[in-house]
Design goal:
81 residues, four-stranded mixed β-sheet, two-stranded antiparallel ribbon, DUF2188 domain-containing protein
């Protein structure tokens, strides 16, 4: 199972969370960034519908596969502040 960690960090004059090196929007306070990370982490675990998806790889080939709606990652929050 995939694991996603939301990290609370200082960013751009305020606070944000990161996931795999990608920053969220900047929040004015640590508490606001933490609340947003908790919300995002909770939503990430919510199951969806099983659907067929199509995507193109870098070599130009198209693929079709089934994405299971119940295949959700485990999440946690890292807050060293």
């Amino acid at each position: 199972m995939t694991h996603v960690t939301y990290k609370i960090v200082q960013h751009d004059g305020g606070w944000a969370y990161t996931v795999n090196g990608v920053f969220s929007e900047t929040f004015a306070s640590h508490a606001a960034a933490l609340a947003a990370a908790k919300r995002a982490a909770t939503e990430q675990r919510v199951p969806g519908r099983t659907e067929a998806i199509e995507y193109e790889t870098a070599d130009g080939k198209w693929h079709t596969e089934t994405a299971a709606g119940n295949d959700r990652p485990e999440t946690d929050i890292e807050d060293k502040a």
